[in-house]
Every structure is written in C-alpha cells, then in structure tokens.
Specification:
The protein has 428 residues and is of the alpha/beta class. It has 20 helices and eight strands. α5 links the parallel β1 and β2. The radius of gyration is 21 Å and the shape is globular. It binds iron/sulfur cluster (SF4).
C-alpha cells in the first residue's frame, strides 16, 4: 500500500489522532508500509531518514522517554546527550501540512489568537497543540537567534503544557565575550534540563554526542562537495528533506550514518556519471519551499530547472571539540551567517552561487519570516549587481490560502524566460 495513503488513512479521523499517535500498533503499520515502499525511494538515505523519523515520532508520542521540544535553531545536541527525545514542532507542522491537514491546524491557531500575519509554522503549531495533536513536552528549548517568533511561541506552549521553557539568549555580535556568555547559559541549561527530566548529566555522553554531530557535519560536507558536479547528481527538492536532520538529528548516531549513506550514494552516482538529466537552469534556492503542494517544485523540474544547491544545506560552522562542548556549541550557534549584518549572508550566497555555478537565485520569501525576508531586497540588489538574476518569490510554506500557486508559477515562468535570454545572449 502507498506509504502516504497508509498514514492518511490512519489519521483520517481527527478525533482519534491522540489514540492513533500514541498506539505502538500505528507505528508498526507505518513501518510495514515503509519497508514495502523501500525500493520506490529515490535515495536509500531518504528511506533511512524515514525510518529514523518514524522511530523518533513513535518515541515522542508513546511517551517512553521524556520529550523536549526544540526550536529550529536550538543546538539539539543538548537533548541527545541526556538521552531525551527531541521533537521539532516546526517539522511536525510541515508534516501535518504535507498530509493535507494544514488548513485545519492553521484555522485553529488563528482561533487561538495567532494573527494571520504571523509565520504559518507557528500558527500551525499553536493550532495542533490546541487540538491536542502534539506530544506533551517535559520541557521546551528555544533560542533567540534567527527565529524571533519561536521563543514567544514556546513560552505560550509552556503555559499550555505546564512545562518549563528554557530560552537561550544569543547576542547579535559574535566574539569571545558572546561565546563565553552563550556557553555559560548552555552549561546551566544542560544541568537544569537534566534535573527537570530526571537524567544524569554525563560529560562523556555529551562528548560522544558532539562526535556524532561532527560526523553529520563531515558527511554533509562530503555530499555537498559531490553536488558541485554537473549535471547535478541529486535533486535539490530531495535534498530539502534533509532539513529534518539539521533540526532534529544533529548529535544522534542515526543522522551521522544517514549523512554517510547519502554521500556514498551520491558518490556512486557521480562515479557512474548518471546526472539528473538535462539541466536548462541551475538554481540556488534560498529558504524553504511550499509543503502544502508540490506544484512549484514540479513546475521547476518540468521547465528543466534544477535546484543545484539550497541555502539550508550549507554547513557554516567549524568542527566541535568534545573536550570543550559548551564553548564549541556556542561557537556553532554564533557562526550562523544569517544572524549577522546582511553583508554576511550576501557573501555566503555569492560563494555558493559561484561554487555551484548557478544561472539564477530564487529566494522563497515565506510570509511572516523576518529572519529570511527581512533583508531580501538588499540581498537581491547586491546579487544582481554581482551578475546573478534573482527572483524574490513571495509565498508561504504551509498556508496555501495566502497565495494562489498560479501566481508563483507565472513569476517563475517570467524568471526562466530571463534566464533563457541570458543564455542565448551568451551563445551569440
Ligand atoms: S519560517 Fe522563519 S519565522 Fe517561521 S519558524 Fe522558520 S525561521 Fe521562524
């Protein structure tokens, strides 16, 4: 049976979600469908990631281990090192939407007072929590960097679930003082989280977690280097699925192994010289994509476009030292190129555009996301001056009510015509 249909069937009756999601039988049914569908996965690394995600979801909903909600950019290694079950509500919101239940969760979020101009990830989470569809957290971990809505949402959620919320305050300016400040918070937070969840803080386990995280980093760099080949060996749409590992997996053995599996598969494909077919336009994709419909990605593919690389898959931090775990994690958090003056994001995007030899850059401007869309006009001007056509594609990752897909396709079509004219101009 089709994997998506199996999940949709299990979840079709919203009133029974609590029962279905907390029953181990549901996970065995989905696991069976996943195994049967194994050969249909374009990459075994994605299949492995599906198994990892299913296992994590089962652990979160069946309540075998304390669950901690972790916001998108929080260093999740902290939770793995205490053998807790990290849960990303942002990923859950994308999944709920992908399964066709997003509009309902969004409406519930709006009924709870979350205005429609707020990020739809947050509205969806608020609605799903209100409906009792998310696993009860023992604690919540939010970081102030990049996503300024997350700490506020998490504080609201902490009230709903009557659970402690730990907020990591990340200063905007990096430097030695900032590193020491963030490291000190992380160390205190690690001890407090252990106490709240009844875990024993163990430095050896923390060191091991950082080694896994370094393994994930190394393997993703390996995969990313292979992606410089032309034609592109893997579809960027497939690569956007690996966001799951960035948000939830870093610090787990599974994420490191899945990263290795991905890089090995790409290497085999590159060795066999089997690219992704004809490439009319190579694109650099900024931010995420719509999860409520595949129309935009399908359109790009049909027009001969490939996502040669995505900003979210860029590894921007240095390897961590397991002997100095908190300082290393602090450096990683502070290293994010988007939590700096916009010139830094421009520098990184220019480097990626050159490295992956792209013809154009698409910034998916998700409504309500200040960290990404805030500087997008400055970004566009600077990149255009440097020679790349740039499209700011206004849209929403989860809320299909905000944007008719047809409008996005028209803008993409016009952008592709520009790219085509440029290519023809080069040939004359
Ligand atoms: S899209 Fe932007 S505002 Fe929304 S959760 Fe992600 S970082 Fe936060």
């Amino acid at each position: 049976m089709d994997l998506n249909k199996t999940i949709q069937n299990l979840l079709k009756d919203r009133d029974r979600w609590g029962k279905v999601l907390s029953s181990p039988i549901s996970y065995r049914i989905v696991e069976g469908a996943l195994v049967l569908a194994r050969k249909s996965f374009p990459w075994q690394a994605i299949y492995q990631m599906g198994r990892f995600a299913l296992n994590q979801t089962g652990r979160a909903y069946t309540g075998k281990v304390p669950v901690v909600w972790s916001s998108a950019f929080f260093p999740v290694e902290i939770a793995w090192s205490l053998q807790l079950c990290p849960f990303s509500p942002e990923v859950a919101a994308a999944f709920i939407t992908g399964m066709g239940f997003g509009a309902e969760a969004l409406s519930m979020g709006e009924e709870a007072g979350y205005s429609r101009d707020l990020c739809s990830f947050h509205r969806c989470i608020a609605g799903a929590a209100r409906a009792g569809h998310l696993p009860r957290p023992a604690a919540l971990l939010a970081s102030t960097h990049l996503c300024d809505g997350a700490p506020l949402l998490f504080q609201n959620m902490a009230e709903i679930y009557d659970a402690p919320c730990f907020t990591l305050d990340v200063p905007y300016a990096a430097g030695r003082d900032a590193e020491v400040y963030v490291a000190g918070q992380l160390e205190r937070l690690w001890h407090d989280l252990a106490e709240v969840t009844g875990r024993r803080p163990d430095r050896a386990s923390l060191g091991e977690t950082l080694r896994h995280s370094n393994g994930f980093r190394k393997n993703m760099i390996w995969a990313n280097e292979l992606r410089c080949r032309m034609p592109s060996p893997i579809s960027g749409n497939d690569m956007l699925a690996f966001i799951y590992l960035f948000f939830i997996g870093q610090g787990s053995r599974d994420a490191a192994e899945i990263g290795a599996c991905l890089a090995e598969e790409i290497e085999r494909k590159v060795a066999g010289d089997r690219g992704n077919g004809a490439e009319k336009f190579r694109l650099l994709w900024l931010h995420l994509k719509p999860y409520y419909s595949n129309e935009v990605m399908r359109f790009i593919e049909q027009a001969g476009g490939v996502l040669a690389f995505e900003e979210f898959n860029h590894i921007y931090w240095l390897p961590m030292d397991p002997a100095e775990p908190f300082l290393s994690l602090a450096r990683k958090v502070l290293a994010h190129f988007d939590y700096k003056p916009v010139e830094e994001r421009i520098r990184v995007i220019r480097e990626l555009a050159e490295k992956y030899r792209v013809d154009g850059i698409v910034h998916f401007s998700h409504h309500g996301c200040r960290q990404s869309t805030g500087g997008s006009l400055i970004l566009k001007e600077a990149l255009q001056e440097a020679g790349w056509p740039v499209l700011l594609l206004d849209g929403d990752c989860l809320d299909g009510r905000n944007e008719a897909a047809g409008g996005m396709l028209t803008r993409l079509q016009a952008f592709f015509e520009i790219l085509e004219e440029r290519k023809e101009g080069c040939l004359i």
